[in-house]
Amino acid sequence: MEIFDIILLAMIAGFIFLRLRAELGNRTGNEPLPPAAGRGAPGGHTGDGAVDSYGRPVDMRDEVSASDDTVVDLEEDPALRRAYADIRRADPDFDLARFIEGARSAYPMILEAFWQGDKDTLRTFLSDDVYGQFAGAVEAREERGETLENKILDVSDAQITAARMAGDTAELTVRFTAELVAVTRNSDGDIVDGTLSDAVTVHDKWTFARDTASRDPNWILVATRAG
C-alpha cells in the first residue's frame, strides 16, 4: 500500500499519529510528508499567531523564498531546476512527483487538525516555531469559546514556487489553491463569521524542509503564508 493511501485511511479512522508512526520502519527515504521525528529543521516567523477570516494561521514564515510571487513550472524556471538538481545531489532518492502528492495530502490534514484544535497531530507535522504559532492560535480561539466548522472541498492545485538547499536542509515551497467553506461559532453555538452555503477559493504558500544528512526521511512544515 502506498504511504499516501495509509495516510488517507488513517485520517478516516482517526488514528493519524499512531498509524504513521507505525509505518516509519517501512519507508524508503523519499516519502514527502510523514510525521517529523526531529525538531531541528529551520523555524518559521515568530509572529503573533494571527489567523485569517478562514481560520488559517497567517504570516508564519522565514526568509526562504526568492521567487514566490508567481506560480512557476519547474521545467520552465532555471532557478528551480538548479535547486532541484542540488536537492537530488544531496538526496538521490528524492522524487518530486511523490513530494507534491504528499504535500497535497498533508495540506488538508494539517488544516483540519488546526481547525479541530488537535495539537498532537500538529506537533507531528510542524517545526517547533510553526507549531508554537498554530498552538497559540488554537488556545486563543479556545479562550474566546469559539469553534470552527471549516471544510475543505477540494485542493485544486499544488505547485512548487521556490526551492533551495540551505546547508544540508532541503526546502520546497508549495502554492496550494483550495476551495473551502468556513464558519466560526461562539460559545452559544451561534455563527459569528462565515457561511456553510458559499465556498471560497484560497491560496496558501507553505514551505517544507528536510535534513538530507539525516536518516530521518520526514519533511516538516517550517513556514506558511497566504498568497
Structure description:
By secondary structure, the protein is of the alpha+beta class. It has one domain: Nuclear Transport Factor 2, Chain: A (Roll). Helices cover 33% and strands 28% of the residues. Strands 1, 2, 3, 4 and 5 form a five-stranded antiparallel beta sheet that branches. A hairpin with a 2-residue loop joins strand 2 and strand 3. The longest helix has 21 residues. The two termini are 34 Å apart. Pfam families: Tim44. It is found in: Membrane. This is Putative lipid-binding transport protein (Tim44 family).
Which CATH class applies here?
Answer: Alpha Beta
Percent helix among the residues? 25-40%
Number of helical elements: 6
Radius of gyration: 17 Å
- The geometry reads as elongated
What multimeric state do the chains show? single chain
Low-confidence parts, pLDDT < 50 over ≥5 residues?
Answer: 1-32, 34-49, 60-72
* Mean of residue pLDDT values: 77
What is the fold named in CATH at topology level? Nuclear Transport Factor 2, Chain: A
Tally of structural domains:
1
Terminal CA distance reads: 34 Å
Topology pattern, helix = H, strand = E: HHHHHHEEEEE
The CATH level-2 architecture is identified as Roll
Number of strands: 5
Proportion of β residues?
A: 25-35%
Mind summarizing the main beta sheet?
A: 5 strands, antiparallel
From the helix content, strand content and strand pairing, which structural class follows?
Answer: alpha+beta
